[in-house]
Amino acid sequence: MNPPPLPWIAPHSPVETFPDVHTALRDPDGLLAAGGDLSPARLLYAYHHGIFPWYHAEQPILWWSPDPRAVLLPHDVHISRSLRKCLRRIPFAATFDSAFEEVVSACATPRKQQPGGGTWITPAMQAAYAELHRLGHAHSLEIRVDSELAGGLYGVALGGVFFAESMFSRRINASKIALVCLARQLQAWDFKLIDCQVNSAHLAHFGSVPIPRQQFLERLDRYSALPGRHGPWRFDAPLAF
Fold it and tell me: How many domains does the chain have?
């Protein structure tokens, strides 16, 4: 039996035009719909409802809501003994929102693990998240060593939830340092959840856990309604590990 056709969202249709996430495919896990656009309103609506875009340049926009969902709790992020030594040994500087577009561009660099060595962070995606950043919803974290950008990450914040999108390293452990710096500051700001979308061995090393989609949606509904931190981010104080 052939699977049902994937729901199509017409570009510039109302942002609410998403199927119920519980109708997402099981294979590939979480594929929900295709089409639409990457307007700020549609992206924010999608994140509020546990949906995110992920596609390659030759594809239409694809929207996903996998089950289970990988999450990190900011106060439970695990720092290994070797990484803790690295945090104390490397003279790094961590900043927020000082080089958003450069971080996204670095994350978009083709990687061997991507199909065909490509990237899912297309020019259209880069432009869309740059606009979310301009509007105060998307944020980057930069790790610099000797004043050079060594690694970082970016994502979207809604209320007490941070949706981590991608990270990169130009020096060993730089993306790991970025993640633990993010978690430490989010913990201080009383953020409740870091959405990692799909679990991996790398994320599990930091304590990520897969939870049922329905449980994720219930937490998202509660936590995204909390007071957020809109606009440019800054660290409250130098971090200590």
Answer: 2
0.90 cut: is pTM over it?
yes
What SS3 state is found at 147?
coil
DSSP state of 196: E
Strands 31-35 and 8-9: parallel
Q: Helices (H), strands (E): how many in the chain?
A: 7, 11
The dihedral through the CA atoms of 73, 74, 75, 79 has a sign that is positive
Q: Please name which of 126, 88, 123 lies closest in space to residue 104, comparing C-alpha atoms.
A: 126
Q: Are 50 and 67 in contact (CB under 8 A)?
A: no
Q: Are 211 and 75 in contact (CB under 8 A)?
A: no
State how far the Cα of 145 lies from the Cα of 167, in Å rounded to an integer: 16
Tokens standing for 200? 């991996």
User: Do residues 133 and 228 touch, judged by C-beta distance below 8 A?
Assistant: no
Backbone φ, ψ for residue 224 (5° rounding): -70, -15
Residue with tokens 């052939």: 2
Task: Give me the half-sphere count of Cα atoms (radius 13 Å) on the Cβ side of residue 146.
Answer: 2
Residue pointed to by tokens 């000797």: 146
| Whole-number pLDDT of residue 115 | 47
pLDDT tens digits, one per residue of 18-75: 999 999 999 999 999 999 999 999 999 999 999 999 999 889 999 999 999 999 999 9
Same domain, 41 and 82: no
- Do 98 and 74 lie in one domain? The reply is yes
